[in-house]
Amino acid sequence: MKKFVQVTSLIFILIMAMITLFPFIYMVLASFMTYQEATSMPPTLIPSMPQFINFKSVFEHAPFVRYFANTVFVSLSTTAGILVTSVLAAFALVKLEFKYKNVVLLVMISLLMVPYESIVFTNYQTIAQMGLLNTYWALIIPSLASVFYIYYLVGYFKGIPSSYYKAAKIDGCKDYEFIWKILIPLSKPALVTVGILSFISGWNSFLWPLLVTNDTNMRLLNNGLSAFTTESGSDVHLQMAAATLTIIPVLIIYFIFRKEIIRGVAKNGIKG
User: What is the 3-state secondary structure (H, E, C) of the chain?
Assistant: First the structure.
């Protein structure tokens, strides 16, 4: 009976994996097809001759180099900001003693329940009143802090023995020295996880850049891809090639740091 359950579970997982992965795999295969193959009925699954020129045509039809540069700059900037603000806020909530600390933590937890869509227009009005529309500041500033990542690091930092901090203070260590020399090295898996997830979030952002920018030179990849899908009309094979290009950097980052992501999620704390 146990073996039957295992085999059934394995078959179910394989079926679900195929259903989940098929659209992604077909997108990659279609990016190498000709127009006739990409639009044929019944659908062609394997291209007869890989059309690498599709990717060259994508760059000729739209400024994807500019989109890549914008997305990399914005994603790296927001990731750096989130890491700095999250580490400092989590350190203060865990290691420092101040009045109403629990109230602050409770308010932050309650903010996790507020949907993003309910505050996006308030953020837009703030950015517009500051005169930052169509600038990199508009894309970066609202993403410099995240309550979710602060709360995640709070849980991780609580696993670091408080005796480390007390010993450092007895030795005359400043708070910023403790953070830089002790806290950050001990929290490397969690910080890598936060960094990668925030980078992917910035890379995939769509709604906010669409609201605060209307200049072609300020588009991010997803906005550029959406515009390219409209402008390229029926060139399905080029649309698939453009979509494939947008996910390659994220896949590379994931495969390089996948062990750190799994370790950071699984090990939420250090047992002293």
Answer: CHHHHHHHHHHHHHHHHHHHHHHHHHHHHHCCCCHHHHCCCCCCCCCCCCCCHHHHHHHHHCCHHHHHHHHHHHHHHHHHHHHHHHHHHHHHHHHCCCCCHHHHHHHHHHHCCCCHHHCHHHHHHHHHHCCCCCCHHHHHHHHCCCHHHHHHHHHHHCCCCHHHHHHHHHCCCCHHHHHHHHHHHHCHHHHHHHHHHHHHHHHCCCHHHHHHCCCHHHCCHHHHHHHHHHHCCCCHHHHHHHHHHHHHHHHHHHHHHHHHHHHHHHCCCCCC
Rounded to whole angstroms, how far apart are CA atoms 83 and 145?
8
**Are 44 and 33 in contact, with CB atoms under 8 Å apart?**
yes
Q: Is pTM, for the whole model, over 0.90?
A: no
Query: What is residue 37's predicted lDDT score, i.e. its pLDDT?
Result: 85
Task: Give the model's pLDDT for residue 271.
Answer: 44
Structure tokens at 47: 């291209």
Give pLDDT < 50 ranges for the chain.
Answer: 269-272
